[in-house]
Amino acid sequence: MPEEPELLLKSGRVLDPASNTDAVLDVTVRNGSILEVGASLEVPPSTEVIDLAGKWLMPGMIDTHVHVGGDLDGITDPGVGLRSVVQAGATTVIDLGGRMERLVAGIKNHGSGANVGGLGMLKPGVTLPDDDPDPYTVRETLNTALESGLLGLKMWGGYYPFSMDVTADIIAACNERQAYVAYHVGTKSSGSRLDGMRELPAILGDNARAHIAHINAYCRGSILPPAEEITEALEILESLRGQVVSEVHLARPNFTRGECDESGNVRMDVARNCLRLRDYETTRESMRKAISDDYGSVVRQSPSGLSLVTGEAGVKLFDEADSLVGMSFPVNRADTAFQLTAAKRPDGTFIIDAIASDAGVLPRNVNIEQAMNMVRFGALTPLEMAEKLSFNPARMIGLEKKGRLSVGMDADLTVIDPEKGRATMSFVAGDMIMLEGRAIGSGGTLLITEAGVSEAGKYGLESEVVDLTKSLLYAS
């Protein structure tokens, strides 16, 4: 007897970049996988039917850059970001720079049904003894991360920079183990700006490979006019074709840290760049003035979620925390993000692989809303939007059964209302985890390395092994 479906998603506009499908079709699901895709499918009366007429159905959104398991100033429970990403339509997320114990706690406390993987954060004094680790220490740190189940490592060059040589060695260590490695550019000799990108060819050489985070964050006009920075950033990425994967986020507010040293100077390169863009000095008092002027905002956590606080209320939070707060500035340019997202090679392929959020715990989970704005504007087709939100992200990580809407693939699916311009429904393995912006799922599946299987068994969570040799970083 043929298998009978458990679920029929009827009459949605199916967007599957892998097969170049853009048509009104039915999709059936059984045992967590897609059973059939076709027109006017007949199913038994016992099958649950959801009518998607007028809606778009794409492979589940995969966000390759979130923060749901890290140490963020002023945020005691980063796991709350898991609800936010699911509410925004994500079905799979990769935490770029956290700790496994926090990822596990977040899934247990706030899990909303999503698949969650993570990279270990490289923070001197916490995960490394100092900011000049020797090759042995780097590899021991990587081994510890992989054995815990993390997929690799993340360098936060705009916050905790290393020398160019150490940066190159960290990437080399990850490449040796075929672990995932992500890099927020910036070294001790450059900033989290275009000058950090200019170092990439020397750091990567002819063979090293890495995920380069949020390209738009390096094109804010700090060094050259924004249009010239865009051109140069794309040229650098193209010169490294086959060695890098990359993403852009589409939110105007950024995220940084307000931390100041004993002398009253702002510590973090990203925060200093934001102050300089509006001609503020890079001091504690100038930071307070920027907050008072409604330019800088302090990230506040409350039982209801996260919010950005500015003005005198923000200054009060900044002072009470002795500057140890998460902060945000409206510095990300929409024109820059849109141009980078849409940039193509002569052969029609995208130079930058994906749209990501750099959010999760931060109140800027707007991937689908902003991508839909680009569709309305004509900068992306619906299929291209699905490519940037799901198909390419799946390939970046090596998730072979996700990012595709065809028979045998995981039934991870996101439904978009084109009139509202946002996700209204999501499924993981055929189970609904989001409805009309409400996260209704629970728990989640931990994406882990083969090296972390024995340790992951202690976490009390569902887990799935990711074969990173299938990642775009290594597959070619």
3D architecture notes:
The chain is α/β, with parallel strands linked by helices and 476 residues long. It is built from 15 helices and 24 strands. The strands form 3 sheets. Strands 6, 7, 8, 9, 10, 11, 12, 17, 18, 23 and 24 form an 11-stranded parallel β-sheet that branches. Helix 3 (135-148) packs across helix 4 (164-177). The chain is globular, with a radius of gyration of 22 Å.
Radius of gyration: 22 Å
Secondary-structure-derived class = alpha/beta
Q: Report mean pLDDT, rounded to a whole number.
A: 94
Structural domain tally: 3
Number of helices: 15
Classify the beta-strand content into a percent band: 25-35%
Summarize the entry for a quick read.
This protein has 476 residues and is α/β, with parallel strands linked by helices.
